[in-house]
Amino acid sequence: MLHIGAHKTASTHFQKTLLAHRADLSVVGCCYIGPDILRRRTASAALGDVRNQPPRLDQIVATAHDAGQHVLVSDENILGRPCPPFIAEGGTLYPQAAARVSAFLARLGCAQVTLALSVRDPLTFLISAHGHQAMAGRPTPFDGFISGIEPLALHWSDMVARLLDCAEVARIILWRFEDYPRLAPKLGSALLGLPDAGPLLAQSAAPQLTGVSAQALVQAQALLAKDPTRDPKRTVRQQMRLFPKSLRYPPLQPFSPACVAQSRAQYDTDWDRLRKWADVTCLTL
Predict the structure, then answer these.
(1) Which InterPro entries match (predicted)?
(2) In Å, how far are 7, 95, 118, 129 from 152, measured between CA atoms?
């Protein structure tokens, strides 16, 4: 099983929950391999640190399979970085998704793999990804962030179809970010292969990431424009503390009510379409 995000769909919360219960999962036959392992390997290789480089991922997976364990690999960065052009370009979500997933699975020597993917309304997806970049120290204007993207032309079914064309992929399990975490018990069963794993996810105390408010963005951008020597990441974080995302300080909403309504209707229609596909399992409440 390969969980590939998507970005901004509570994947970090999901991964932290699994990490907290990794030992418990191993005891009942599930090997969880998350970003803590995958990204450490990448960093070691980039630094040329042969002595401290962890075991190869294909060796870890093979050992787990030989022990009869169900393997869940999870890292949304397999799809690329959480910004354009990785997440979207033109009217296409994750244009490199199929090539990147296929290359990753080929390196593992895996075939007939089940992918797990969470989706969300494309407009809120773009807004959240923009906020993520701001929190990382890149508070660019939203119009510049989505330059070259056609928000109302984005459909997850297009991405899913491309992933199903990968020779290494057998089927895909989908769920909607909007249903998380109420869907946790079903996620435990579907992704971990353990009917009793649901409570581990449902009882997680790990907080979901809090985004940035529109006011915090405005203030940070103004301060950075006035003094370009300021540290962007620190400035954004300071303004987030002063103007925390809440009812009083709502998130950025750059789209008109008509666009929001159209996107939601298209998203619902797209989901209904995916529910009818033979090689796709859509988890619902």
Answers:
(1) P-loop_NTPase
(2) 19, 16, 19, 16
β-strand 280-282 against 30-33: which pairing, if any?
unpaired
| Residues pairing with 149 in the sheet | 90
Cβ atoms 157, 92 nearer than 8 A: no
Is pLDDT at 127 greater than 50 in this prediction? yes
A 10 A CB-CB count for 97 gives 26
Q: How far apart are CA 173 and CA 190, in angstroms?
A: 8
DSSP 212: B
- In angstroms, the first-to-last Cα distance of the chain is 22
pLDDT reported for residue 45: 46
Looking at the structure of the chain, the number of domains it has is 1
The whole-model pTM stands at 0.91
If you count DSSP H runs as helices and E runs as strands, how many of each does the chain have, helices first? 13, 8
The CA distance from 227 to 231, in Å, is 9
- pLDDT surpassing 80 at residue 137: yes
Chain position carrying tokens 């890149």: 138
**CATH code of residue 115:** 3.40.50
Domain containing 150 equals 2-209+270-282
Query: Which has the minimum average pLDDT: 169-178, 203-212, 247-256?
Result: 203-212
Residue 135 falls inside a structural domain:
yes
- pLDDT value for 100: 97
